[in-house]
Specification:
Strand order of the largest sheet: 1-2
CATH class: Mainly Alpha
Distance between the termini: 30 Å
Structural class: mainly alpha
Helix content: over 70%
CATH topology: Growth Hormone, Chain: A
Radius of gyration: 22 Å
CATH superfamily: MFS general substrate transporter like domains
Order of helices and strands: HHHHHHHEEHHHHHEEHHHHEEHHHH
Largest sheet: 2 strands, antiparallel
Number of domains: 1
CATH architecture: Up-down Bundle
């Protein structure tokens, strides 16, 4: 049952069905955190009109209200990385589930803007924590030769959450007549937030059914507990060998800290800079404008609320298909080739969307309208863009951040990269409403196109392949 000690890890054929089933089960639980992120992103997509009416928001106020979750995400990702080294991966995820549940309920019930923003910030901390800990946890329990596929499930769950929220929003809006209509005396847009409580409860309860990460347990000198988990995962022979390998990857007597990721000459170590490139450019290509503002974007392009929500559902469906395709090939062709394919595809499709919006006209009320050819081009390009993203940068960034750092620095490096990822996310989302007003959709999408082009050269120069390598073999 013992697999090779080098790059490929335990052979899949050597893992019995019970152990593989256990791995799949705990991965499914861990990635519910991704579903929460996706669900919130999709839920807020249909609540723009309700937020503006309830809290009397202008474009910048709407951007801040929507983006307050992302500020929380940045803080949550940063502190979760370090807390995960102090109190455990699973424990931090449990705290995150509780925070998200409370935040969802307050967002759906409060009439006070300050309290709404505070609840959204708290929910954001939970989402940020789960976003970095889910791939970290998965990478620490999955065999190297299927780790990419298992970690990609995180993105599958994000898109599943998005699509579920799009569907719920669509049917709530249909039932109430619009997002501003009422169901049972409560506005439909409020129900869109309250519905987030259901997956939060599922996540919280399911976390009590999975074990702590064996690598964390070894780091805390809890070898007996780690041996028990590894034995259930891979069998007794592999478990004993893995404990020795994990122990050897830590400097004896040294506690992981932020000093592990620092460099006197370049501030951070090269591997951390590579992680920062992945974390920030995943956002600079503008993907979350479609996630967060898809309904608003299509209405800017001249379609009705109902049609805009329908197009969100289409985007969610094609996203799931694209991530499943990535899941099938990521452990075969590798991470870096997928990133390059995605960068080229996004550059082309974003350029097509920029061209389509350049021909938009405005009616007497100032609403944008696209001609038949431009409208079809925008719709096709937007969905192809979503496909390229979810076949590449969407899942691959999370996979690589969870696996590319050495054990000694994984928590600290993830804290820094998670902060940068959510900070970039916030910057893009906060700036979109104002940019759409000042430089228009053409100028805005031209900037996203430029970021996609730049990412091609950065990937080629700085990103190293991690396919099939054991976590203990990662170099910093």
């Amino acid at each position: 049952m013992a697999g090779p000690t080098g790059g490929t890890g335990p052979d899949l054929a050597g893992i019995d069905r019970v152990n593989l089933g256990f791995i799949i089960a705990i991965v499914a639980v861990a990635t519910i955190g991704g579903l929460l992120f996706g669900y919130d992103s999709g839920a807020v997509n249909g609540t723009q009109a309700g937020l503006q009416a309830q809290f009397n928001l202008d474009a910048n106020g709407l951007g801040f209200t929507v983006g307050s979750l992302l500020i929380g995400c940045a803080f949550g990702a940063f502190f979760a990385g370090r807390l995960a080294d102090l109190i455990g991966r699973r424990t931090v995820m449990i705290v995150a589930a509780v925070m998200f549940l409370i935040g969802a309920l307050i967002q759906g019930l409060t009439d006070t803007h300050t309290l709404f923003v505070a609840a959204r910030f708290g929910a954001g901390m939970a989402v940020g924590a789960a976003s970095v800990l889910s791939p970290l946890y998965i990478s620490e329990v999955a065999p190297a030769n299927i780790r990419g596929r298992m970690s990609t499930v995180q993105q599958v769950m994000i898109i599943t959450g998005l699509t579920a929220a799009f569907l719920v929003n669509y049917f709530l809006a249909q039932q109430a007549g619009s997002s501003l209509g009422e169901i049972g005396g409560t506005s439909a847009w409020r129900w869109m937030y309250l519905a987030q409580a259901a997956p939060a409860v599922v996540f919280l309860l399911a976390l009590f059914l999975i074990p702590e990460s064996p690598r964390y347990l070894v780091m805390k000198n809890k070898d007996a507990a780690a041996r028990k988990v590894l034995t259930k995962l891979f069998g007794a022979d592999v478990a004993e060998r893995k404990i020795g390998e994990i122990r050897g990857s830590f400097t004896e007597g040294h506690r992981p800290s932020f000093a592990d990721v620092m460099s006197k000459k370049t501030l951070f170590r090269p591997i951390v800079w590579a992680g920062l490139i992945l974390a920030t450019f995943q956002q600079f290509v503008g993907i979350n404008i479609i996630f967060y503002y898809g309904e608003t974007l299509w209405r800017l392009a001249g379609v009705s609320e109902a049609v805009a929500l329908e197009r969100n559902i289409i985007s969610g469906a094609v996203s799931i298909a694209a991530v499943l395709a990535a899941l099938a090939v990521i452990d075969k062709i590798g991470r870096k080739p997928l990133l390059l394919i995605g960068s080229v595809g996004m550059a082309v499709t974003l350029g097509a969307m920029t061209w389509a919006f350049s021909g938009a006209t405005a009616d007497a009320a100032g609403n944008l309208a696209l001609g038949e050819t431009a409208g079809l081009t925008a719709l096709v390009a937007a969905n192809l863009y979503v496909i390229f993203f979810n076949f590449s940068w969407g899942p691959v960034m999370w996979v690589m951040l969870g696996e590319m750092f050495p054990n000694q620095m994984r928590g600290s490096a993830l804290a820094i990269c998670g902060l940068a990822q959510w900070g970039a996310n916030y910057l893009v989302v906060q700036s979109f409403p104002g940019m759409a007003e000042s430089i228009g959709l053409v100028g805005t999408y031209a900037l996203y196109t430029a970021a996609a082009v730049i990412s091609i050269f950065l990937v080629r120069a700085f990103i190293k392949e991690t396919k099939g390598k054991e976590l203990e073999d990662m170099q910093g």
